[in-house]
Amino acid sequence: MPFSTQELMIVAAAREIRDEEIVFVGMRLPITAYGVARLTHAPNAVGLFECGIARYVPAEGMLYTMADPPNQLGAAWTTGLIQIMGQLQRGRVDAGFIGGAEIDRLGNINTSYIGGFADPRVKLPGSGGAADIAAMAKRLIAIMNHERHRLVEKVDYVTSPGYLDGGTSRRDAGLSGGPAAVVTDRAILRPHGPDNELYLASVHPGHSIDEIREHTGWDLKLMPDIGETPPPTTRELAALHIIDKDGFWR
Amino acid sequence: MPFSTQELMIVAAAREIRDEEIVFVGMRLPITAYGVARLTHAPNAVGLFECGIARYVPAEGMLYTMADPPNQLGAAWTTGLIQIMGQLQRGRVDAGFIGGAEIDRLGNINTSYIGGFADPRVKLPGSGGAADIAAMAKRLIAIMNHERHRLVEKVDYVTSPGYLDGGTSRRDAGLSGGPAAVVTDRAILRPHGPDNELYLASVHPGHSIDEIREHTGWDLKLMPDIGETPPPTTRELAALHIIDKDGFWR
Amino acid sequence: MKDRLIPLGEAIAEHVRHGDSLVMGASLEPDIPFAATHEIIRQAKRDLDIVAPISDASSDMMIGAGCVAQITGAWCGNVSGGLGHNYRRAFEHGMPRSIKVNDHSNFSLGMALMAGAHGMPYAAMRSILGSDILRSNPAFRITENPFSAEAEPIVLVPPLIPDVAILSVQRADRYGNSHHWGNCGLMQEAALAAQRVILLADEIVDAAVIASDPGRVLFPGYLVTAVCHVPAACHPSPMTGCWRRDNAFFHDYHRQSRGREDFLAWLDEWVLGVPDHAAYRAKLGQQLDDLRIMGDAPSVAANYAAE
Amino acid sequence: MKDRLIPLGEAIAEHVRHGDSLVMGASLEPDIPFAATHEIIRQAKRDLDIVAPISDASSDMMIGAGCVAQITGAWCGNVSGGLGHNYRRAFEHGMPRSIKVNDHSNFSLGMALMAGAHGMPYAAMRSILGSDILRSNPAFRITENPFSAEAEPIVLVPPLIPDVAILSVQRADRYGNSHHWGNCGLMQEAALAAQRVILLADEIVDAAVIASDPGRVLFPGYLVTAVCHVPAACHPSPMTGCWRRDNAFFHDYHRQSRGREDFLAWLDEWVLGVPDHAAYRAKLGQQLDDLRIMGDAPSVAANYAAE
After folding, report:
1. Is the Cβ–Cβ distance between C181 and C241 less than 8 Å?
2. CA of C267 to nearest chain B CA: how many angstroms apart?
3. Which residues pair with A202 in a beta bridge?
4. Based on C-alpha coordinates, what's the Rg of chain A?
5. Residue C96 shares a structural domain with residue C146
6. Does the residue B250 lie in any domain?
7. How many domains does chain B have?
8. How confident is the model at residue B247 (pLDDT cuts 50, 70, 90)?
9. 3-class DSSP assignment, residue A88
10. Is residue C166 domain-shared with residue C137, that is, in the same domain?
11. Suppose C169 and one of A205, B234, C31, C178 were both cysteines; which one would form an S-S bond, judging by CB atoms 3.0 to 4.6 Å apart?
C-alpha cells in the first residue's frame, strides 16, 4: 500500500505511544499519530492539550488549533492550563510530542532565538508549553524536518532541554526523562551512550545513511542495532485514513 | 421593641460590616449578622464560605453547616477552598468573623489546645480556617461568650493571631490587619494604644462596667470614648426577623 | 476506557492498605464518603493517616474504631456537636490508641494538597504566620521572601501526596468519569495529588451523560482507580441536589459517642453489625427517604456543539 | 448587585491606562477578546505589558499599532501562520518601536498568575529547569529545595498581578456574573489575580440564568469591573458553542502583516477605519454568519434543588 513521507512519520510517531499512557499530543502530526495509536495498539491512551483539555477519542472534524470547538465536544475534561500541565510536573505524563526550529546533537531544542538571546538574528515565537513538556514528560518525542540547518551541533538557545551538555548534566539540572526519539522525514534518531547523543537508529525506506548524514549538522553516528523503519502496516494505514478523512497528509 | 442578648450581638456584629465589603461569614451568629447587614446598610456586601461558596443573598432555609443544600442553591459561585481562601491571602477580604474557646488581652485566639500543645489538658478541634482569617482579613471580628475563663490574660496556644505580643509584633510576624472588635454577650472590646490591647469600648444595655471587668480575665481598661451599645433599631430588628424566621435567636 | 466499576468492599480491600494516608471527602462539610468510613472500620484497616481540612464524624468514628494513627488536618470534631469525643479520648488518653495530630489551617492544608496535585516542591504562603501551628507542626518552614526588598517572613508548606483519595460525587460512568457540583473544597487537589482515587457515585450513568459536559468534570476518569455505586454514601452529610443533611443523626452520634462503651454500642449497631451500605440504607428506611431531595432546580444548559 | 454593563469603548477608556499590564484572554487559542484589542488600538493606548501564555494575532496587532512595550509570555506569533510579523519587526528592528520580551513557558506563566491569584509570595516549581528561559528572563530564581534530603534544584517564580484582565465569556448578567465553558487556560487565575476585570459577554442574560448554575462560574461577578455586551468579540478566534474559528481571516492577517505598509493598510481597513465592533461585524457580514455555531449539544442538567 502506498504512503507519503508524512504518513510514515505519523505512523512512526504513533508507535512511540504505548497503551494506557498519558500523552501530550499537540497539533498537526502528533494529534494524528495519537489517533492512529488509539485505533491500533493503544486503545486506552489519553491525550492532553495544554490549553485545558483531556480527551480519550480524538476530535471529529477539522482542527486548526487544539481549542477549536470539535476538540471541546465530547472531551474527557475541559479545564484550566494548571490542572493539565500540573500533571506533567506531578510525573503522570508518559510521553510528549513537540516540534522545533532547531535540535542539537544532545537533543536540546530551540524555538526562541536564532543567534542567542542577547542579540538575536531571528525572534521565534518561544516555548509555549514545549519547555515544560521537554523537562517533565517521561519521554520526549521530537518531530522535525531533517535539514542540516535544523539538526545542528549546538543550538543557540535551549528552549526545551534535551540532555543539555550530556553526561549527568540533565540529571544535575534536576530533571529525569529526556528525548526518546527524534522522528524526521528521513529517519529516526535515538539517544545512545553516556552522553545520550542522538544516533541514527532507523532509516526510512528510500533513504540512505549517507544522505541522512549529509543532512545532519553533526557527525551522526550509527546505533549498533540500526535498521530500516518498518513501513506502515495495512492496519496502521487504515487507521490513519479513518483519522485523516480528507487525505491532508497523503 | 424587645430583643434578646443574642439579637443584640447579631446586630452589633452586623454593624461591623460595611457596604460593598467582602466578608468571611462563617456559621451561626455571623451568617445571621451578614443577612441583617445586607438588608440594612450593606446591600452590596458579599459573603464567603471557606468550603467554596460565595453568596450575595443569604440562603433561604435552615442551615446546619455552610455547605448545606440551601447555601448552594442560588449561590454567586460554588468552587473550591483555594479559590475562596486565596482571596484572603490576595488581600481582597475586608472582614472575617470567628469564634473561639479563649481570647487574650491582645486578641490572640485559641481553638486548639488547652494547656499548651506539648501536654494539653483538652484537645479542641483546631483552626479550620480561623488562623487564615485572623492572619489575612483586613479586620477580624471575634464573637465570644464573656466569661472570665474565656477572656484570659494570655492564651495557651495562638491558633489565630491577634496582636501577638503587642507593639510591632504582629507586623514583625509579617501580618497587617488584626482584631477590630470582640463582640460578647456583655460588651464590645476594641484594640487601643501601641499594644492594641483590648479595651472596653461599648457596654451592652443592662450591663455594668464593674460586672464586665469581673468577667474578664485581665485588668480591663476603658476606651476614652466608651459608650453604651445602641440597642437594635426597629429597622435592624425587622431585618433580623426576616432572616431569623423561626425566632431561633429570640 | 477501562471498566472500573467494582463493589465498595472490594475497592477498600484492594486499594486501602494499613498505614495509608487517606483523604476522605475533602469538600469539607458535604459529600463525606461515610459508606467508605464504615467499610474501612469493618475491614479493620490500621495505622491510617487521615488528611482532611475539616475532619467530621467520619474521622471520629475511625479513630474510635482504632483505625487511625495520625490526623493531618485543620479541624477535627463534629460539625453539629462541636468536639469529637473519640478524637479527644485518643489524643488525651490514648484510647483506644494514641494518635498524632499534624496541625494545619484549612488554607495550609489546601496549599499542601495543591502542591502535591501540581508536582510543586512546596507552596509558599503567608496565611498562618503568627500562628502556633508553626510551632506545633514541625513540617512547616519559616523563611524570608527572596523577592521582597524588605525583610518579609513567609511560610513554606511541603506537598502532600495522599496514598488514596476517597471522593463522593453525584454521578459517574463505570469508567471513572464523573460530575460533581456544589462547593468542592479540596476535592480536585486531592484527586490530582493522590496515588489512587476511589470514587463513590450516587448514581451510575451512561458515559454520554458525563461526556455531555466535560466542564462539570472535577478530575479526569483516567486517574480514578475504582468506581463504586453507593447511593447516599454521604449519609448523614449532605450532597447538593441529592441528599439533605441528617442533623439529628450527627447529634445522636455526638451524644452516643460521649462515653467509650456507648460509642462501641453505636459502632456495633450502625457499622459492625451491618454487612454493607445497602443494609445500612435499609436500616435507615424512612429516615433516609425523608432526606432525599425531591425538588428540581436544573442548571441552564451549556451548548457544546461544534458546528 | 451593582449594574456594571457599559459600552466597550467606555470600559477601555476608563479602565485601561497607558503602561498597564494586561491579560487579553488567557484561555490560549479560543475566546481571545479581539474586540478589546481593536478598541485599545483605536484609543492609542501606549506602553502596555501584554501578559499571555499564548499571544496570538491579538498581541501582534497591538505591537504593530505601537501600543506595546513588553510581552510577558510563553509564545507570541500567529497560531495559523507561525511567526508574528509585527512581533519580529518590533523585536528585531524596533519598528514601530522596540519591545522587551519577558520569556516564560506556559506553565511558569501559569504558576506566576496562580501565585498572583492566591496571594502567594511566589510559586516554587521544577518545570523549566534546564531551559535558557532561566537565563534570558532574570525574574526567576534558582535555588535548592529545602525539603529535599539530596541537593535538588528548583525554580522560584514571582507572582504576576496584572492591572487588567480582559476576558470573553459566552454569557453574563449585567452585574458581572458569568458562565464560561470549554477549556479555560488561565482565565480563572487571571481574573483572581488582576486589579480590574473587563468582561466581554457574547450574550447578556437574566441573573437567574447565571444563578441557576454557580458551578459554571469561573470567577465571581463581584470582582468584575465592567461588563460589555459584544457578540463575536472573539472573532476570528473560536468560542465553544458560539463561534467557529475563522482560519482564513488569521491567514489573511498573516499574509497582509508580512510587510509594514501592508499591515498599516490592514489596520486601517479592519480597525482604525471601523468605528466599533458592531461596524466590524457588519463589515464581516455573511463571513461571520457562516461561523456561527447553529447546532445544539446541550449539557445534561445538574440539579441544585435544596428540598
Report:
1. yes
2. 22
3. A188, A227
4. 17
5. no
6. no
7. 1
8. confident
9. helix
10. no
11. C178
> What CATH code is carried by the domain that includes residue B175?
3.40.1080.10
Nearest CA among C123, C73, C107, C52 for reference residue B134: C107
Q: Using the beta-carbon criterion (under 8 Å), do A68 and D238 form an inter-chain contact?
A: yes
Q: D288: which residues sit within 8 A by CB, 6+ positions away?
A: D232, D235, D246, D281
Is this model's pTM higher than 0.95 or not?
yes
Domain residues for the domain of A102 are: 5-243
Q: Is D179 on the interface with C (CB under 8 A)?
A: yes
Contact between A55 and A75 (Cβ < 8 Å) = yes
Q: From the list D119, D222, D306, which residue is nearest B86 (CB)?
A: D119
Instruction: Classify residue C202: in a domain, yes or no.
Output: yes
Chains A and B make contact, 3+ CB pairs within 8 Å:
no
Identify whether residues D267 and D213 lie together within a single domain.
Answer: yes
Q: Which domain covers residue C147, as residue numbers?
A: 122-158
- Residue pair D190/D26 in contact by the 8 Å Cβ criterion: yes
Query: DSSP characters for D131-173?
Result: -THHHH-TT-EEEE-TT-SS--EEEEE-----SEEEEEEEEE-
Nearest residue on chain B to C83, alpha-carbon basis: B125
d(CA A121, CA C248): 74
Residue B13's pLDDT is what? 97
Radius of gyration of chain D (CA): 20
Q: Residue C94's CB: how many other CB atoms inside 10 A?
A: 10
Q: What is the pLDDT of residue C3?
A: 97
Active-site positions of B read 50
ipTM of the complex: 0.98
Which stretches of chain A score pLDDT less than 70? none
- Judging contacts by C-beta atoms under 8 Å, the chain C residues touching residue D300 are 209, 212-213
**Is C106–B132 a contact, with Cβ atoms under 8 angstroms apart?**
yes
Do the domain assignments include residue D172? yes
Which residues of C, range 205-224, sit inside 8 Å of D by Cβ?
209, 212-213, 215-216
Tens of pLDDT along C102-113? 999 999 999 999
Residues D13 and D51 in one domain: yes
Q: Are B87 and B93 in contact (CB under 8 A)?
A: yes
Query: What gap in Å lies between CA C192 and CA C186, rounded to an integer?
Result: 10
| Residue ranges in chain D assigned as alpha helix (H) | 8-15, 34-42, 57-64, 85-93, 106-117, 133-136, 187-193, 207-211, 247-256, 260-267, 277-284, 286-289
CATH number, residue C98: 3.40.1080.10
